Amino acid sequence: MVKWLGVAGVLFSPLILADPVLVTGGTFEPPVLLDKQRLSIEMNSFMLDATPVTNQAYLEFVSSNPRWQRDNIAALFHDGNYLKHWDNNTAFAQGKENEPVTYVSWFTAREYCAAQGGRLPSLNEWEYASMQYRQQQNISDNDYARKLFAWYSQPHSKQQTVNPNADQLMHMHDRVNEWVDDYQLLLSNGDDVDLLSGSCGDGARFMSSFTNANYATFFRYQSRSDYAPQSTTSTMGFRCAYDLENHDE
Amino acid sequence: MKTLSLSIISASLLAAMASVSAPATATDMKLKHDSEYVIDGKIYGLPEAKVYREEYNGPAVVGDYLTSVPHLAKLDYEGNKTHDVRMDVFSQQVEVAPGVSYSAWTFGGSVPGPVLHVREGDRVIFKMKNRSDEDVVITKPVKNGAPFFQQIQDNPYQKNQPVINPMPHSMDFHSGTVAAEDKWRTISPGETIEFEWIANYPGTYMYHCGTSSVLMHTAMGQYGAVVVSPKDGYPTDSDVDHEYVLVQSEHYLEEAAEGNYIYNHGAALDRKPSHVTFNGHVAALSDTPLRANEGDRVRLHVLNAGPSGTSSFHVIGAIFDRIWYEGDPRNEWYGMQTVLLGASNSATMDFIVPEEGIYKLVDHEFADAELGAAGALIAGPRQQK
Amino acid sequence: MNRLLQVTALASLVFSAPLMAQDHSHHTQHGDHTDHTTMNAAEVSHSQSIYQIDALWNTHQQSSLKLSELAGTPVIISMIYGSCTTACPVLVHDAKRLYNSLDEATQKQVKLVMVSFDTARDTPEALADYAKQYNLNNNWLFLNGSEQDIRTLATVLGVRYRQRPDGDFDHSNLVSILDKHGVIAERIEGLSQPMEKPAQLVTQLAKMTVQ
Fold it and tell me: Where are the transmembrane segments (chain B) (predicted)?
């Protein structure tokens, strides 16, 4: 299979991005309770990109969608720094092909995914996949928490490339912070929980159990929810999800 | 409602009268915005914060009364003043112990951030750009920057180096009385926030980042002190020979692979600091001790920034002559050996330097002192006054 | 084209700035409903035209529409869903109250746009029934769009929402006023808010000439 495609007839070079992988549905017990009534959620199966979207893959997108090139993008959809690390509309420094694309806003990430016949994963989908990833990779809860906080403490300390041939979920916690479709939800979880969550250390109310791992996940939710949808930074990237009924194999 | 509007009228009348005759007192506090009102001589009801994007590459700390610890700027004006203050938020590699440096989140590039000195009743117009996704250098001379830069450059004990680490941040001044969800709100990288606050109460106050996880943001280095001098001063002001600011804090670091240190959230939750420091470095006040002479009256403004520990502050060989807890002249105590400060508590305290010699400053919770919460004041011979 | 839009949008912001302070209110009043949760509105840009959204919408009058076609008139816009029985009728009523407080000349100019969260159930036909039920005139437009476009529009308006397992939506209660360029001039958060000041604003916006 070439790159996962929901829409038939679009041509893609096979080395741009690894195939998406199947995330098998099941019961998801959210580490962060966005809704106190829902301690578990039934997840449908879906496909998810194995790695964050790379510069090379994003280049293909803007090449065929000039509207989303750096000089053409409508001002409403970014903060002025969109793709600022690229050389120009359709080129970036050599060697960065397989690095996750950054300086992309939530709007542009969604446009990219839509153009691939996919969408941004929901927050629950992404976190559910992250749990499966932790199991597959045998990452203990404490290691996960430590590494996540370590990444936030020093996001540029590691080499950044991803494997374009990855055949399983990769780099969910150690390359970029990833946009999800409903990333803004947490801070606005209704009046009953919204009053304090904007500021000081009151995470315990949101967690099913106050473990370091859950706290780390909460931190990811919370700090991302403070971004504007126009925000573009050197650490914000994304990967796409695809509904299963589009699978034409 | 009626009494409220009356008090506004009387306050502005008084303000109009006072503006004619110097020196100014608290009664000349001027109401600037329609939303403002006065209770007991204090101004409340400040306008909403503004959040916007601006092209700004100038000095990250702006204002004449912003210094680096342990310095405190002199208030060279009478009465009240409006301060235009900028303190940008950005990341910086800082050293907290020999060979131990980490990528800190900072206000102004140092840990703790700059000390702001104002007078009770002053108005602060505060601006902060989130420059966490930029390289910001503070160790080279800048034009129109605060005195803070010269002091950092004279003694760069944290070896401050720019690093990039984009994060949302916010600023919470304990010295301000405002709606926190408005003024202390979080801004994304690239955004600027602007708001005002009035120094309604005298004292030494903490400021810090209030963005979740506030434990991580403060432990990463986002705190500092505001000293609000009382409008009528402290009773011993005229006898004070030296005045210094000390900020105690805990650091929760672990060594990462390449010999460089990162934040350890588990340790922070367990309250097991790797280092406890005065002014952000285990050797800040021993490599560069505070200075005084025999017979001097030394005043310390000590803030315990936490994030989670207490400080039992003591000077070995001295007794605090006067203590104003939290820096309010009405909270006056006498003759204390040790002053207990919870997280974000402060005290302003005077002591007489008894003899020429070395006076160690410690957190008398000795586990903290062993982890670095120790420094020194070196006293020279008695001077003729 | 985009730059042009931006410039005119900025010009109109400068013009409207003295009229209305930037809206950063987080804790305005909320109605008391039992069946779903009210979400506080998110902050938004007050300098960019929302007409930069290129999406195509289906109207309850069986036509299709790009939001940019609304340029040239002030717009009162809100987001609702048809099967909602609590907040949404109040939001429609609030928009109607605002409209009714305008003078006749302004009323002729203004468009009222209600965009549904519920792409599946609120078909153009269902929305036509809805408009009929509330006895609304031709200045009203009810829009159905794709999930993607609904989320985009909601985000630029600062409307937060999520679908619950029972199919209902938690959402912010927000009526927004757009100037003739599609820039958000004011937002009214919460239900049954006073409409005198918003009405004055719409009247002023209607008098402004398009650059």
Answer: none
